[in-house]
Amino acid sequence: MxxxxxxxxxxxxxxxxxxxxxxxxxxxxxxxHPELELRIILGASALLYRFGNVRQIIEDDGFTPDATxxxxxxxxxxxxxxxxxxMAIMELATLFENMEPDIVLTxxxxxxxxxxxxxxxxxxxRLAHTQGGEVTGSIDESVRHAVTKLSHxxxxxxxxxAENLVRMGEQADTVFWTGxxxxxxxxxxxxxxxNDIFERYKGVGPSIDPNKPYITVLQHPVTTxxxxxxxxxxxxxxxxxxxxxxxxWLWPNVDAGSDDxxxxxxxxxxxxxxxxxxxxxxxxxxxxxxxxANSKCLLGNSSSALREGSFLGVPAVSIGTRQLGxxxxxxxxxxxxxxxxxxxxxxxxxxxxxxxxxxxxxxxxAGTRIAEHLATADIRIQKRLAx
Length: 387
Fold this sequence. Notes:
This protein is 40% helix and 14% strand. By secondary structure, the chain is of the alpha/beta class. Helix 5 links the parallel strand 4 and strand 5 (126-130).
């Protein structure tokens, strides 16, 4: 299972801005490992400008993609998600055939992850999976566990997740509790907020003063609640309007329902012209960590509120069902899609201030652990249920 250079060729598929944030340190560790050879495929929303210009961020970090996969069918509906998954399977199969990787590494639970897993497993390529065994809402819950059953080696972020994988019938010697690679970036970073951070990323809206308090909002569509995104985002907007603190608002991802959420944001912006909200497409992995580390509250339904947020002790409010059931630290309050409840929770978190830091999702060394396992583990292609 090694190339002519006696190295294992590891192919990482980067599909989105969040996906890259949770695999960047693994990519760096694989590139630096003497027994591994890194290959990068860039695809899906990571190639679309309106979802963050991830290609530029990756290249600025010193990585050069070996191939690209254009697979997103525009529309952001359940139908286009299914079609995008199918297109990605076909394109990735061709790339895997040409690149001949020994191992394909895929991340978490997005629909693009499913495409990677199907293509690699059907082609008898050993599949490695990070962040399996977690529990959440949305279609991500189903995708994550399906990818687990297609994967040959597992790198869960928490101890409980590792135990869940074994209870799901995965053989214990294929499960390695490594922590979440997203924590690596936070743990190694100077978290001071640069004075020009808000100017560099441009965006739309009034200027944000980095020396004054602000909240950060990142709310994605919930695929299993498709059609409700417009109403849901307006509940959050109403709560933020009542608080009227400087607000850094990031654009939603490409999941089904994204258009409804985006429409809600655009309509509100055009009708109200808020003088306290600035909308951004994306931040680099490091600047996003700095952004949330210095926020008075992180609001929405992104898992970063639970992962990086718990490690940093950032006060967070998680809205709705998208993260429901996921492990979390004391820094999180949960609310329904109710503007009054959201407002009250945010005010409570702002008053509380920073929480005690937690290493629930890792200690900052996941990347090097994963690279070492990729280099040394005996990864069997034949799977068996183990109960």
